[in-house]
Design brief:
mainly alpha, two-stranded antiparallel ribbon, 38 helices
Length: about 850
Amino acid sequence: MNNSLVFCGEWPLRHKILLGLACFIVVFLMVFSAIAWYTGLENVIQWDVVSELHQKIISTAVFNDGTFGFSASSPVYYIKERYLPGQIRVNHLAFQMLLGGGLTGLAFILTGAFRLKGMWFLLFIILTGAVLMTFRLENAFGQTNQTAFLIAFVLVAGLFYVLNSWAPDMDTLRAAGLFSGLFGLLFLAFMYFNQINQPVLSAASYGLISFLVISAVFIFLISHEILAGLIWMVSQTARKGNSSLGQYLLISVIFLLNAVLIYLENSKSIDTSFLILNPLAIYIISAVLGLWGIRKFLEQKSVFSFSASGVWIYTGMAIITTATICFIYATANDSLQEVLEDYIAICQLAAGLAFFVHVLINFIQLFKQGLDVHKVLYRPPFSRLLLARVGALFLVVMFLSFKNFYTYYQTMAGYNNAIGDYYLAEGDLSGAETFYKQSTHYELLNHKANFTLASIALSQDDKINAGFFFKQALEKHPSPFAYAGLSRSLENENLFFDAYFTTQKAVAKFPEDSRLLTNMAYFQGKSQLTDSVLHYLDLAQKNCKNCEVENANFLAFWIENGKKEKLEEMSSRIPAQDYYSNKANRAAISKILGKAGESELLTLSKDSLLDVSRFAFAYNSGTNILTTPKGDADLFLKLQQKEGNGDFQEDLAFIRASQNYFHQNKMNGLKQLSILASQARKNQAVYHQNLGLWFLKEGVYDQAVYQLGAAGDSSSVALLTSQNYKGNLDGRLELQAGAITEKGITLKNVDELVNKAPLNPYLLDKVAAFLGKAKEDNKAYNMLFYATELNPNSALLWQLYTNKAMDMSLTEYAQNGLDKLKTLLPKSEFDQFNTLYQFRKAEKERSSAGF
């Protein structure tokens, strides 16, 4: 590689490492700046998703008895979502990087400057004092004097003076360590003794002004470096004796034309074009080339040593400038962004013109002879480089003057925005509001201040002022966030059509923003324009990234509007996602289509509170009889007991009952739904109907007819009463009992067998007999007792219960059973049973007396 490029080849290893560290910091900040620039407003504003719970009553098959199929009404819940701008947040990392980068850069500058004498020494002492003063350290310590500043300045300036006077030959790495260590100790003391919540933000926000000044100087100094680099390229390809003037003129004109276009673009004179380099890219290229440019300048001008001073001062300024640029983009400070980009464009154009003329005046003959101009670029024979810099400075001032004092006002607006961020993070809303409003006084329509003021107004439920500030935020730098915020404010004021038309304007301005398209679909839905809803949902899906919200809305649309065949076709196009709104709507579709849905454990927040998406998923999957649950039904009891889940109490009870009945414990499910049906305030008819069909499935005819009648299901009641359904039921129950016990009853499988038909008296007769032989009378008694609670009109059950109570000498309970049988059995049958009962009772009494 060319030795002119690898300038540190003969440096000591420790100096190479130090330079490598400095370059790494600069590159890291450049990358972070590029990311922050690309991320834009999302550095400080995130989209909030508002989920709306919707209900649709469908008919679901409960069972088929071989002759008739029975279905019950059941709700499905589905989720529709839209986007709202979140509360603006303070990017703490940006402030930390600004302060860290500023102190690191200052340490490198002082490392390079401590060997310099005379005016240079005085200049850097003043620079150090100015930077430290702008930090307003007294704010962090609750002081009204400058004690904190004086301590810091005396320590830093004192070290600088000692090294300059008594140790000018100290090794660079050691000097860098001393300055870095001192700044580190001062920072630790600052963090330990301060009396505020956000000391870093305080120092960084107030100190921003000094970093802006250093950045402005650095950007101006490197603004000719791209043209200098082009001259180096021309020189490298030139052949001695052959003129390279034409190449220089061509490449310079191209560069200057691009500089003019950048300036015109930033001044809004022409539209944005991807062919024009972004000012941030221009800065990065200039800063990288400047490292070699400053070396050439110092070697040719002999101002001071490049390796001992120049490289460290340069990298220090580069770190401060890049950290400042990073901060500007990462905090979405649009006032400072505009100033920065305008300034870079103006400096490139002004310095480019001045440097182009300067080179042409001094080196035209060398170009004609094809000589290496770059080797003497900073040794002009006629016009000094200082004159070119003065000319460039004059042009910069002239271009800035075209805006009068607007650049100054924008800078002050951005500075006040930064201080407002500090007070916002500190929790002082009044102080934050004061500085943001001061920012709008300097630049009325800057987006950051207006949007933040709107966020503060919303946090105080001041919807009118929020709408006002959102509207101002849209005037100069419209954003999807501000449009969505204004639309929300208008909707909150019941100005639906104003909100609708605002969103329509937003879509026209940002036609590929999936969030705005989603919101447009929401408003079209409110207007019941079904075709338009589908149109905007399709557009949103085509332009979204992870598409979680958009896919959930697409599924919700077809749940609401599609027939089963179309619903199945459309849902198959949407991929499954680990997103509960998507899962909830998929579970709803599975229930509508009568298919098993995906089963998974419900993940909850630490407080076990349900959001609507998790609730909808739990309900749809938990009440789908084809979906086998993975969790225990008692989970929903725990959720019911959480006060924050009050809106879902009855629905959670139904999930629990359904999961128990179909998958875990039928008796518990029947009991739970019986209680819910008697106490419910909503969907009571649904619960009665489902309970009636559950009873019918268990063969409890009387309870089934009663519950179906309570549900208003007259067609099912008519069917059951007109088809001699009750007469055929006993035969089915006997067959069922035989099929269940076909493989025998054991103590291991008895619970499983009973759970298959817990109210079937023929099955319970066989099980009770088995348990009696196995000396499990208590278990048999409890089984029969709970069965009579839910099937109170089964004479066979009461006979079994009464006999078991008598077997266990529970004569009072046996007598209750006998009294119940008197109301259920014909007189002849009751007399026959009573005779046997009295005989057994007498036998028990004699046995007890003999004992």
